[in-house]
Amino acid sequence: xxxxxxxxxxxxxxxSAGAAFGMPTGSARAQQMLTGVTYLPPxxxxxxxxxxxxxxxxxxxxGDTVKIDFYDSGRLLSADEQLPALRSGxxxxxxxxxxYITRSLPILGVIGLPGVVGPLYDNPDRLKxxxxxxxxxxxxxxxxxxxxxxxxxxIMEPEIIWSTGNPxxxxxxxxxxxxxxxxxxxxxxxxxxxxxxxxxxxxxxLYLALQRGTxxxxxxxISTINGRSIQEQVKQALRIPVTGFAIGIFVKxxxxxxxxxxxxxxxxxxxxxxxxxxxxxxxxDYYTKQYWPxxxxxxxxxxRARSGDARSFRHGQRERA
Length: 321
Fold this sequence. Notes:
Mean pLDDT: 87
Number of strands: 11
CATH topology of the largest domain: D-Maltodextrin-Binding Protein, domain 2
Protein name: TRAP transporter substrate-binding protein DctP
Number of domains: 2
Number of helices: 11
Pfam family, one: DctP
Order of helices and strands: HHEHEHEHHEEEHEHEHEEHHE
Largest sheet: 6 strands, mixed
Strand content: 15-25%
Keywords: Signal
Helix content: 25-40%
Shape: globular
Region (Disordered): 297-321
Low-confidence stretches: 14-31, 299-321
InterPro entries: DctP_fam, TAT_signal, TRAP_DctP_sf
């Protein structure tokens, strides 16, 4: 099934208006067909593993109860459009990186606090479904009418500082006076505290921003570097955990509570799978076993590591091209 993005937004906007005035909306069908989105493209194999796995789990194991119509790569909605569309009821659920929406949902910023991301990364159970932190975050999200079904069972490997030029950013003091790409509010404050100018740029525009000199560096994970081929532009990385994020599955609370029990059961079961496998697969199977070894090869055009493994963040290693 293919949906034209502009027609979708127009049609669903009319649908929401009709619902507000008590007009029939075909709710019986909505209980069986759900629309889900993510702005991330399949080139993010590490992140797509969890989101696509969730969708496949529902469609393959519970297809007689519910089907998911899934749109990745921002084909239906851009990163900034997803949350408003969820709130308006134009989509049924979304996968989103928490760092993109902390300005709208401040409680998610807990995940990305400097000084917290290292221990949270090393202890992923603290973010699993049913954990005290997970429940606290959902309590706050519900005040805004939203519910998180999962945060992937943990955060992704923390974001570090990747820079262009020579010498680039090799110490925290080098941040002073530099223009640094960020996404989250937490990263913005961290960079500004060291005298840098934080510039919010989505990952889809980061390659050109670095190439054109719009920014001198970027706060990003190895996932973004690999998924957007940023290693072609950066020369070194200061491997200090600036901030971090998780991939969340978000639904509108009243929509979730009104779903048929069979649909909720299928989604919950898939969320349990996502919680067990998403962050774990990304951090271990992709970053530790594939991405970092590839970037450390001398012939790679990206950067090459001097020493250490992917979990040595608190030591503030420097990686050079």
